[in-house]
Each structure stands twice: as structure tokens, then as C-alpha cells.
Amino acid sequence: MKRNMRVLASILALTLALSSLTACGSSNNEAKPSDSGSNVSADAKDTITALLPPVSGKFQDKFKQLEKEFNELYPNLTLNIEPASWEDMTQKLDTQVNAGSPPDIAFIPSGGIPKYIQQGMLLDITDTATPEMVADYDKVPLEYMKNGNGLYGFPAYMEVHALGGNKQFLEEAGIDWKKVQKDGWTIDEFREAIKKGVVKEGDKTSRYGFVFATAGVASKDYLNILLKNAGMPAQFNTDLKYAYTSKNFLEVLKDIRALIDDGSMPKELSSVDAGKRWNMFLTGQTMITGKGLATFENNANENNEKIKAKDGSEVKGSIPVDYIVLPVPTFLGEKQQASVAVDGYVTFRGTKEPTAEHKANVVKAAYFLASGNVAATTNNDLFAAHITESGRKAAETMPLNRNEDNKAAVETLLQQATPARPDIPTDLGAKAIKMEDEVIVPKLQALIAGEITPEAMYETVKSAAVKAFGEDGVVKE
Amino acid sequence: MTQLAKPLKKRRIKGDGGWGYAFIAVALVVFAVFTAYPVVSAFIISFQDYKPLGSTFVGFDNYIDSFKDSLFWKSLVNTVVYTILTVPVALIISFGVAILILPLNKKLQTTFKAIYYLPAVASGVALSVVWLWIFDPMPTGILNQVLGFFGINNQNWLGSSSTSMFSLVLMSWLSSHGTSIIIYLAALLGIDDSYYEAAELDGASFIKKMWYIVIPCLKPTTLFLLVTGVIGSFQVFQNAYLMTGGGPDNATTMVGLLIFNNAFKYFEFGKAAAQSLVLALIIGVISLVQFKFWGKDVEY
Amino acid sequence: MSLYNDHTGHVAAKYIRNAVIIIILLLFALATIFPIYFMIISSFGDPVEAGAMSYSLIPTKISLDSYKFFFEYSEYSLRWLLNSLFVASVVTVSNVFFASMAGYAFSKIRFKGRTALFTLLLIAMMIPYQVTQVPLYILIVNIFQIQNTYSALILPGLVTVYNIFLAKQFMSSIPTEVLECAKIEGCNQFQVYFRIILPLSKTVLAVMAILTFMDSWNTFFWPFLVTNTMDMQTIQVGLKNFRFANTTYFAPMMAGATISALPMFILFFSLQKYFLKGVTVGAVKG
Q1: How many angstroms separate the CA atoms of A324 and A417, rounded?
Q2: Inter-chain CB proximity B248 and A351 less than 8 Å
Q3: Residue C52 burial by Cβ neighbours in a 10 Å radius (0-12, 13-18, 19+)
Q4: Range of the domain at B23
Q5: Which position has the higher pLDDT, C270 or C195?
Q6: pLDDT value at position A4?
Q7: Which of A455, B45, B289, C177 has its CA 20 to 30 A from that of B232?
Q8: What is the mean pLDDT of residues C43-63?
Q9: HSE, side-chain direction, 13 A CA sphere, residue B126
Q10: Which of B167, B241, B266 would best serve as a mutation to test chain A binding (most A beta carbons within 10 A)?
């Protein structure tokens, strides 16, 4: 039955398409040639599909409404949103891409763009996006949606990966967090600070200075966040030489080990996951945690409310916490460069070359999702900064309750956001990703678990890099 | 009387070729369309640099690359170790439990079967959360509390390469044997009483009955569980994926995980297909050995 | 008369033996049941995120909010359950029927190419699904164009090699003599299958039904791939929507898992009578 309906529907659609074609022919004869083409194409019926994860907690509840609003804006266009969870959507998207039939739009981290370009399945919208649309975006996040000369979608937000501290504990340890928010700190200052955060009961540590989620692949985040502040903002330097073979890399590895050996971080760090460290933060088992996103302030506030309500619904054993945004320490006198995550609405194509009209419609839908009211609400839910003019304007009237110091700190960090690297060719990027997954992450896990020395890890990475990129393809100093 | 003397001997009914095809027709069509077709596709893809917009033929490159890749070998070794440590133990445990359930009354049988089968009903997510709690590296973790009771320091179960494989194996030992238990029980209940009667007339002990009746009669079942168990174990990747991500230092990277990564993370679909076929070949050889070894006097 | 001694005249001995057995089984049961227990008690917690989860053996607070949350979360909650029920039922019935037929043929009927065909089936089982999944997706979505339909959810699972293998192994231990007698009495193969094989295989068919239903009910990835609207999703796909950005609504997810496990309990206990002893060859002969 369903099958028959589908056939019927496609016949209907075909008839409609044909009749609109004939209409096009006749109108062409009568109307002025200059604007008739765009008029007609803009009226043709079209459906745009989008695969979207729960970007914010309330995001998926709004899908019906988004579809409706989009249809009101463009009566001839239908937006079909498929919901998917974060964990699973990559797999669905990848299967669809491999099968040659991806959705028109998918919400993914900008880091995924090169991978899909290599498969030839991304839609370059450089020519289709209007100048007004492009001008709406801040330059830094928009760059993240580019590769080579192509633009492959619109960014939704740029989030800073920072650290988060417990205000009371920071003050007890004599750390001037306001100054740190403004001026940053060096790894040596940081090391001393978190030593002071440690509280011991007998020979057991009841509170650590610093805990970062490093279980499994999350260890990648930890390393990357630190490397940004050690003069290695990307895996390749500006001459496209692989950067992780530099001496600085070794120094960062040594410090990673030192923080654990000091006793400021737990020796079991290698199996602390995101949930665990957040639990440790809320229950006062650590002074500083990472990675810290702006929205964590919100989570901490919610738990504080629950503690006040005294109904047993708070996290077991938790204490009231004022969440303080802190920058990542810098290494070897290098400048502070915030690690940012830019996620956005990326545009895809199928095995068949899309028509110009369809392309234009896809861009309309992507822009609709990534600007104005929609972007403003979503980013507010996430405590994320707005990156479009239209979004900022729409957000003016929306109330938001957050710590002013934190807001300022995040803004400072956003100013120092690591620039995008659209110049890195996709094949180099792909090699680097594989290198990261198969060599760096496994060795880093072993380093954190105390099974290999920083030197041993450095040598392994170096020889693997030389093998992958050649003697001349890597940084030597 | 010869029939009774050799009750286990199986002869097939002759001259029913047409019926044979009719009986497997539906299964075969479903198989051809939904299993054989994808497998053949995968075979073709294994000789290609696969791209949705047009693949190029690369000969045996995908195979050669895989064999040169030390990680592929390491993951194969990990998979073999995992299989050897888990599959036989799982068989012994489920066989033992099935035997123990057997003498109980029907109500108790049902209850225990239900209990052992339940974990299979629970969602995998729920299970992995519980296991993360059990393997919590801090002294408050469940397993670490048990160790602490004996005065042993807390272990970094999933985070250290010396214990991570063991942790995954332990997880497999203690989680669902429900399917095997139920299948074994079904087989046990199917053993004809007349065998036991005959044995008892000869004054056979429990051990003797076990050895001469139960184990031979359960051979087809054991073979089934062994072959499917090995196949499952060689393809396993969910546990490693959820619990350790293959780490640390690739200590728990299984072939299944590697194939998954190649197919999706790196989009090297041709290589993933090649590695799968190598894997299938290995499982095939192992299964063949199992059939030869276990199936000697059993029909297969 | 059975494997175990009846201890006729030694009632005490029998009781002691059974008591020991029960204690061993209970200890093992504790380890197995623990995750379920955890699943159920956490479902009574508050609908909070997993990052804020606290592990405890005894619930600090009993609330049914999560169950409410689950049904209010989406207007499709009930629909998901029904979809799963429909898909799993169809798949189960077709597997029990077709796999037992194929299993019978492979174990008891002699025909040309039998061993070769069966080997082929087994080999296909050895190819990991990560690789066959993309070609299968291309087949269903690009060639048949039936994505987002019940057909797409059901067709690939109509008969599985696993079940054919299972049926074959069990049926191979049915004495061929029984079948030959029936043939001599003038039954054709279909009658033999229907009147003798099926009744004799009740136990294994019940096992197969449970396993297949369970498997279909729990499948997540395939339904997730081929559905693209909420109303066609199965319960497992719907459940996964509880997992949010960096956190998870833990208790409602557990409530969902508990709800989704319920039909399995019911099925399990309703099929119980087929598990019970009595359908053995001897019984038929006698």
C-alpha cells in the first residue's frame, strides 16, 4: 500500500513538474526575459532534507515548527527534518554518503568537511550563497566552513573549549581567577596553582587540582587544547609541514606527565570520562575541570537550584558550585590561542549533479537554520556566542541569565580563536586524521596511564610522521 | 532391531530432491537478495578505491596494504586472544548452568531461565553504563572496592593496557549467556528418556550418563554454539567501541573495530571490504576445523 | 528416569542436592541480574542528565516522572512501540516458518548441491555487517526505493542464516527412522514436515521465536538507517533520541529501556509451556 502511494506520489510530482515546465515555456514568451527565469525557478516545488542532531536540549522539539516557518517563508519549498542522536548520526550520514544519497543538509562539526570532500559528496555553495548571506557571518567561524576555495555550508556557532573552575576552591587556593581570565597563565603558573588545589585526607586525595576527561578518544581533545597554546594551532604549519614533530610537542607531553606525577591530577586519569569528571566537579572532588563549555555554567546553576530545593534530586553528594570559565595555560612563551569548535549546517549533493534551482533552495534552507531567530534561540540555549548579525539582533530581546565575568572571559577567548585552515589539502588532512587515530591517541592513552615515557611517545609519533609525510614533510627543530 | 541399536544414525530420505529445493526456496531467495548480493558487492569493492561518484579498480592493493599494516596484525592477534578467552568459557558456563537447572521443578526452571535471559533484554546502553561503574578506576568503583576489601590497591581497569583486555573478557564472562543457556536447555530436554533408562539398567553413574549420553547428544548444539560464538567474537567491536575505544595503546583494538573505522571514519571502504574478506576467510578455516573435529560422527 | 538420579527413598538427599544447586544458580543470577536491577531503579530517578548521574544501589527518591517524561517527550512514543511490535512479530513468524523448513531440508532431505549451498550460507554469515551494510542500503534505498516503509524494516530479516543453522542442528538429531515410517505410511514431505517435524521441534522453535523476536526488537542500526520520519521509527531508534548533546537524559532513557523490555518478559513467559519437557521423540513413539 505504502509502495503504491509512493508511486502515485512520484507520478503526481512528475505531472506537476511537467506542467510547471510547460508553464515556464509559456510565461517565458510573455514576460520580460530578464527576470522571468528566476521567478519561475523560485516557484517550482522542491523538498530539502536535513539530518539534524539535538544541537541543544530543546532543539528537536522545535522541528515541526521550523518546518512550518520555513514553508511560510518559502511557500513552494518543503523542509524535511530527520532527527538523529549525536552518537548515531555520523554513522547514518556516512552510510548515506557511501551509498551516494546523503541528505541535502547535515549538522556536523566543521572538522568533518575534508572527509566528505574527498568522497566528492559536498556541495560547494560559493556561487549560490548571496553576498548578503555571507556578510551576515563573522569571518573566523565562516572560514571553518571552507576548504580550498569552496564554501560548504554555514556555521551555527563557535564554541570555546576552555577549562572550568570552582570559584570557592580557586579562592581558597589563593588563585586570582579574575586576573587569569584576563591575562591567562603559563603552564608553570598553572602547575603551581593546581598543586595548591589538592586536598588530602591521610594519604588519600579527597580533592584533585585538575581533572580532564581523557577516557578513550576524548584524550585527543586534551592534547589538542594544550597544543594550540604551544605554538601548534594545527597539525600542519603554514608551509604545510607536519607540526607534531617539533620539540615543543615533546615539552607538552612532558608536562602532561608532570601534572599527573605531581599528584595534582588522578593517576587513573586515563579512564576518567566526561560524565565522571563532571560528577567529580559537582561533588567537590576537583578544583578545575576540562574541557569546559560555556553551557556548563548553566548545568552547575541547575544543580545548585536542586540542592536548594532539598528534594533529593541533586547529584548525589554534590555541593553548590559557582562555575568559573578559565583559559588553557600557555607553553614555552607561545601566545594564547583558544581551541574552538565550529559546528554548522553543511550542504551535500547526491550522485546526480543537482540543478541550480535545487542548489539555491538548499542554500536558503541552510541559511534559514543558521541565522536570525533560529540561530539566536539555539545559541542562547547553549550559552554560545552569536556569530551572525541577524542572530545578534534577534537575541537582543531574549533574556539570558549568566555570570558577567564568564561572559567577558568567553568573549576574550573568542577573540583569540584559532583561525581555520582551509589551505590544508584534503589528502594531507586525511592522513593526519588517520595518524591521530592510529598512533597519537593510542600512545597518548598509554602516556597518561604511565606506561610509556614522553620521549618514547615523541619518537613513535616522529617516526610515524616521517613515514607518512616524508623527511621533508615534517617540522624539524 | 538394527534401527533401535543405532538410534543416532541418521539416513536421509532419498528421492526427494524436488521437495528439498521447494523447502529452501524462500530462504534462498531472501538470502540471495539481501545477503549474497551485498556480499558480492563487498567482494567487488575490495578491489576498488571506492567512491560513491565512481570507483577505480586498484587490483590487490587493498589486500597488500592491509597485510603490510602492523595494526591489522595486532588487531587480529587481539581478536584471537579475546575469542580464545571468551568463547570456550562461555560454552562451559552455559552448559554448566543448563545442567544445573535441569533437575529443578518447572517453576524454578522457568524463573532461572528468565533471570539468565534478562540481560539480553536490557538495552546495551544500560549495560555499558553499569559496566563503566563496575570498572570505575577510583577506589569507589565496585570492582576496586572488592579488591580494597582484600587490601589490594585500586586498578585502572579500562585505562591501562595490562588490564583492559582482561576487563573486556571479564565483562563477557559475566554478562549474558542467556541465549546459549536456553539453547542448551532445549537440547537437553530433547534427549529421549529411553537412553537414560537403558543406561540406568546398566547401573551407569551420573558421570557416565553425562559422558556417554549427554555430551554426544549435545554435539550438534555445541557445534552450533561454537561456530556462531566464534563468528560473533571475531566480529565483535561494540564492547571495545563503547568501553575503551580500542585503547590504550591499541591493546583492545579488534579487527571489527578496525574495519568499522576504515569503512566509516576514514572512508577507505575498499580496504574495509578487503579486511572483512580476509577475516571471513580466517573464520571460515576455523569453522571448517570445528566441523571436522566436532562433526565427525554427527550429521552436518 | 533422567540424567539425574531420582534418589527414590532418599527424599532428604534430593532436597539437599537441589538446595545446593539453587544456591549456586542464585549466586550466578545475582551477577547477571544486577544491570537489570540498576536499569529499573535508575528509571525511578529524576530526569537528569547522565553527567549529573550518581551511582547508587538504593534509589534515593522514587518518582514516576521519567515514565511521564518518556510518553510526553514525543507524541510518537506509543507508535514506536507498535512499530516494533509489528516488525518483530512478522519477522519472528516468517523466521520460524521458513527457517524451520530450510533447516529440515538441509538436515533430512537429500538433494543436489545441498552441502555446497549450506556452506555458502555459512560463509555469508562470516562477513562482518559493517561491509555489507552499505551495499544493502544501496539496494533498499537506491534500487528498490522502499526506505521509510515497513518492507524496508522487515524484508532483510525474513529468514536469517543463524536460524536456519539452528533449526538444522536440532533437526539432525531427530531419528530418520521416524520420518521413514511416516513416508511408508504414505505421507509426502510436506506432511512429514507438518505432522512430525514441527511437533517434534516445538522446543527449538519456541527458542527460535524468542531469540528472533528479541533480536528484531533490539535492532537499532538498520531501522535507524532506513527510517527518516518519527512515525516509522521503532522503539530502539526512538529511545536513542534521549541521548542529547553532551549529556543524556538518563532516567527517562532507563524508563524507556524498561518499557521496551516489558513485551519481552510477556513473550518469554507466554512461550514457557513450549519449553517444558514432554515433546520428545519417545513421547511420539509411545
Answers
A1: 19
A2: no
A3: buried
A4: 2-45
A5: C195
A6: 47
A7: B45
A8: 64
A9: 31
A10: B266
Of A266, A272, A445, the CB nearest to B249: A445
Chain B within 8 Å of A119 (Cβ-Cβ)? yes
Sign of the alpha-carbon torsion through B263, B268, B270, B272 = negative
Asked if the domains at A18-159+341-415 and A160-338 fall in one CATH topology, the answer is: yes
* Residue C37: count of CB within 10 angstroms of its CB: 14
Helices (H) and strands (E) in chain C, counts: 16, 0
B 143-172 near A (Cβ less than 8 A)? 154, 156-162
Residues in chain B within 8 Å Cβ distance of C133: 38
Domain-located, residue B108 = yes
pLDDT confidence of C164, banded at 50, 70, 90? very high
Subunits next to B (3 or more Cβ pairs <8 Å) are A, C
Q: What is the CATH number of domain A18-159+341-415?
A: 3.40.190.10
Residue range A160-338, CATH number: 3.40.190.10
pLDDT at C40 over 90: no
Domain map (residue ranges) of chain A: 18-159+341-415, 160-338
The DSSP secondary-structure symbol of A271 reads G
Taking the mean position of all CA atoms in its chain, how far away is CA A42?
Answer: 33
Cell numbers at residue C120, please?
555458502
Three cell numbers written together for C217: 526488537
Residues B41 and B179 in one domain: no
Residues of C in contact with B126 (CB under 8 A): 35, 38-39, 42, 253-254, 257
User: How close, in Å, is residue B289 to chain C by CA atoms?
Assistant: 13
> Which among A92, A303, A315 has the least Cβ separation from residue C224?
A92
CB distance A96–C54 less than 8 Å? no
Query: Given C5, C32, C131, which is nearest B42 (Cβ)?
Result: C131
> pLDDT above 90 covers what percent of chain A?
63
Q: How sure is the predictor about B85, in pLDDT bands with cuts at 50, 70 and 90?
A: very high
Q: Which of B74, B86, B256, B231 is nearest to B171 (CA)?
A: B86
C213 shares contact with chain B (CB less than 8 Å): no
Contact predicate B158/B167, CB 8 Å: yes
Mean pLDDT computed over every residue of chain C: 80
Domain contains B300: no
Measured from the Cβ of residue C15, the count of other Cβ atoms closer than 10 Å reads 11
pTM over 0.90: no
Residues 237-266, chain A: which have Cβ within 8 Å of B? 266
- Structural contact between residues C127 and B272, judged by C-beta atoms closer than 8 angstroms: no
The distance of A260 to chain B (nearest Cα, Å) reads: 14
**Distances from the Cα of A273 to the Cα of A57, A340, C48, angstroms:** 21, 20, 18
Nearest to C52 among A98, A101, A303 (CB): A303
Q: Could you tell me which chains touch chain A, where touching means 3 or more CB pairs under 8 A?
A: B, C
B299 within a domain of the structure (yes/no):
no
Q: Taking a C-beta distance cutoff of 8 angstroms, is the pair A435, A464 a contact?
A: yes
Q: Map residue C248 onto helix, strand or coil.
A: strand
The complex's ipTM works out to 0.84
The answer to whether C52 contacts A95, with C-beta atoms less than 8 Å apart, is no
H or E segment to which residue B280 belongs: helix B269-294
For B231, which of C125, C133, C193 is closest by C-beta distance?
C125
Maximum C-alpha span of chain A: 91
Q: Which residues contact A301 (CB under 8 A, 6 or more apart)?
A: A323, A401
Q: Which residues of B touch A431 (CB under 8 A)?
A: none
Number of Cβ atoms within 10 Å of the Cβ of A290: 24
For B:62-121, CB contacts with A below 8 A are 71
How far apart (Å, rounded) are the C-alpha atoms in residues A429 and C68?
47
* Grid coordinates given for B33: 537478495
Instruction: Tell if the CB–CB gap between B246 and A442 is shorter than 8 Å.
Output: yes
User: How far is residue A375 CA from its own chain's centroid?
Assistant: 15
